[in-house]
Amino acid sequence: MMVRKTLISLLFIVILFVFIKPINSTMISVFNIADGPAVVTKGHYGTSLIVEISFSDETLLDWLKTVKEPYPLLLLDAAWIERSPEHLKVIQERRLPTGLLGPEDSVDKPIDLAVVQKDINIYEKYFQETPLWFATRNHQYSQDLQNNLFQQQMNILSPSLIWKGEKTPKLQKGDFVFMSLHQNSNISFKELNTFLQQNKFMSIEENIFGYKVQTKKSP
């Protein structure tokens, strides 16, 4: 009788753990947002900032050290990754969310997938995992590229709107706001910090799923 009560109690605890465990502590290994190859341009629950990075200087390093949560998603250029060890150290120590910024693509003139794979390999070398998020510089995607990234369980992002440092645009629920930190960018970090303070951003995962997700890529 005692053994039966114990088993029932254990079963009840397991059920409670499964159904009452807080969603915001969920750990998932990999995921595809869609059931097939797709480009995701919007979430559902708020707005998210995605920062493309391909240029380094001390100002960027200081910003990476001080940017506050909720952190924007950083899409990193592969060549930038290789030449920016100090920046990478800060990103990894602070666990800033990252993805891969790929080269330009086109439906009419698809990119060589070997070039994209080389960039993926560089990301994996430095981060010890496959990027969960991906975007090309021109936000265009051939079908071959979409199929290839889907097979590797990488999710393709494209902007709802692009912020270039001008007056704050009118944001809508679900928006993915892209901005670039390239060599020819004119956005100052003062403008960027003001933009972050003036708007309530959330992580990509929270925007898409409605709750925070701890994501970890499986080896």
UniProtKB/TrEMBL annotation:
Domain of life: Bacteria
Protein name in the entry: Uncharacterized protein
Taxonomic source organism: Lysinibacillus xylanilyticus
